[in-house]
Amino acid sequence: MARITVTTLGTGDAFGSFGRAHSGILVRARRGCLLIDPGPAILPQMQKTYVRPSAVDAVLVTHLHGDHVAGLPFLLLDCQFASRRRRPLVVAGPHGSAARLTKLATACYRELSRDRLRFSIVYQEVAAGEKFTLSGARVTAFGMAHSRTERSLGFRIHIGGKTIAITGDTGWCESLIELSRGADVLLIECTTYSTDSPDHLNYRQIAARRHELRARRIILTHVGEELLNHARQVRLPIARDGGQIGL
Fold first, then answer.
1. CA distances for 82 relative to 76, 78, 86, 101, 157, angstroms
2. CB-side exposure of 156: number of CA atoms within 13 Å?
3. pLDDT in tens, 102-144
4. So what's the pLDDT on residue 143?
5. Mind listing the pLDDT tens digit for each residue in 29-80?
6. Taken in order 191, 195, 200, 205, is the CA torsion positive or negative?
7. Residue (of 184, 174, 173, 246) closest to 218 by Cα position
8. Does 185 score more than 80 pLDDT?
9. Is 169 noted as a catalytic residue in this protein?
10. Closest by Cα among 227, 169, 224, 219 to 198
């Protein structure tokens, strides 16, 4: 097994195009297991890749749209009743995460209120430009251009001597250049093939500006129907549900 393994648990857009699962990325090292963006199908996707929910040390959230966070209540449900977690779970995300995610969990199951849990949840709210440590990784947050109503972050994760860059959802912005610089792998959203949007990237944009993205490897994720219909014309790797990247 590679020193660092990145598993793309879910690689689809918000519509689950072509049956792909919603967002979810797992970064595993010898001394840490970090889950990024627990989308709605996160538990079955973890089960398919033989990862126990109890192995997760911390959760990292790029933004608070449902296709990126709606699986968190089910992760907490497993921790509470199935794996019977005792150690704290750290959940880091943009400002507003603590209140929104607490409401989401208790809206699904009242038993997930923080005063009823057998383990503690530690919410850590971060802003663009902040550097922090999470699950044995050094993380830097970058502001992304995704939504006028949601704070959206990309993350540069340095762990075990390797650097993983994750854009979350975003249109083109200058932060992408610094986020990707020197990364061993860049997981970049690519919702469409050529349709322009201020909130999402398309393949033609990425291909045209590939030289600005100085990552050693670039892999497309958060892919939608239009992109997948043009998959034969795409010259960059497209992530698949359950795929593993060894670093």
1. 10, 5, 12, 21, 30
2. 22
3. 999 999 999 999 999 999 999 999 999 999 999 899 999 999 9
4. 97
5. 988 999 999 999 999 999 999 999 999 999 999 999 999 999 999 999 999 9
6. positive
7. 184
8. yes
9. no
10. 169
Angstrom distances, CA of residue 200 to CA of 10, 86, 168, 173 = 17, 39, 10, 10
Distance CA 4, CA 15 (A): 30
Q: Which domains are present in the chain? A: 5-236 (3.60.15.10)
Assigned token pair, 229 = 């219909």
Q: Which two tokens stand for residue 240?
A: 């698949």
Q: Which of 13, 37, 57, 67 is catalytic?
A: 67
**pLDDT on residue 45:** 97
What tokens appear for 140 in the block? 């830097």
- Whole-prediction pTM value? 0.96
